[in-house]
Write a structure and sequence with these properties.
249 residues, globular, 13% strand, Nucleotidyltransferase, domain 5, 9 helices, alpha/beta
Length: 249
């Protein structure tokens, strides 16, 4: 199990956990899917329209995801008589802000790389530590001496100048990526698989949660990863058909 302690050296926004609200037609910056965002997604998809599965297999996809202790917890069913609804014995306390862990991972058509458990928010400096200690080993495991292209989203820690310099200094080719596009990243599907497996049995402590995440991640097969990478041409076509709006992926 790996844990990275982050340092507060810069500002960064939280990672995405899904596609988000319904798209808006306004071009205002406050809307998730502005006209500008849709146009960039559409342009990006059009540029990648003729990429083959073999080309997508050269991409090392990465992402962070948040896992909560209460994930999938719907609570116990309670049988009550009329008038017992507000009785203390029929009530159960809940946690407004459940404990959680942040996890970084990477995948390619060949399988998954090692997970990094992150303590705190992801900043530029800590992002570079993740690249050093987890992205490079992932690339070594999945590609060996072969060339690859690295993908990460446009989170501030990823797009920071110092992070860009680190990648350049290490000779890493980075895939240009459109904002607000979790539907284009197949690793999102792997996070969903892991989270579904955590529902039963449900972890009761953070250590149990981390162990369950690691076990579920380790059970992901290269065949599953290859199927997801093979879906990239369909994802691209879906974005083009949707004119840049979010897709079913």
């Amino acid at each position: 199990m790996f844990l990275l302690q982050t340092q507060s050296t810069a500002s960064a926004g939280p990672p995405r956990s899904g596609i988000g609200p319904s798209p808006q037609s306004s071009s205002g910056s406050g809307h998730l899917f502005s006209l500008c965002s849709r146009q960039k997604r559409l342009t990006w998809a059009t540029e990648k329209q003729h990429w083959t599965v073999a080309q997508w297999s050269k991409v090392l996809f990465s992402d962070e995801s948040k896992f909560c202790m209460s994930f999938g917890n719907q609570g116990a069913r309670v049988w009550r008589k009329t008038g017992e609804k507000e009785m203390p014995k029929c009530l159960k306390s809940s946690v407004k802000y459940p404990q959680s862990v942040m996890v970084w991972g990477a995948m390619s058509a060949a399988g998954v790389g090692p997970l990094c458990f992150i303590k705190g928010r992801v900043y530029a400096a800590s992002s570079q530590e993740i690249l050093e200690h987890f992205m490079l080993p992932s690339a070594e495991k999945l590609y060996g001496d072969e060339d690859f292209v690295f993908q990460h989203d446009l989170a501030p820690a990823h797009s920071a100048k110092t992070t860009g310099k680190w990648l350049t200094d290490h000779g890493i080719t980075v895939l240009n990526w459109p904002a607000n596009s979790p539907d284009l990243n197949p690793i999102e599907n792997l996070w969903d698989i892991v989270k579904r497996k955590l529902r039963d049995p449900r972890p009761n402590t953070l250590d149990e949660l981390k162990a369950a995440i690691e076990a579920s991640w380790a059970s992901i097969t290269p065949q599953q990863c290859h199927r997801l990478i093979a879906s990239m041409p369909r994802r691209i076509e879906a974005v083009i058909s949707a004119k840049g709006f979010p897709t079913k992926y």
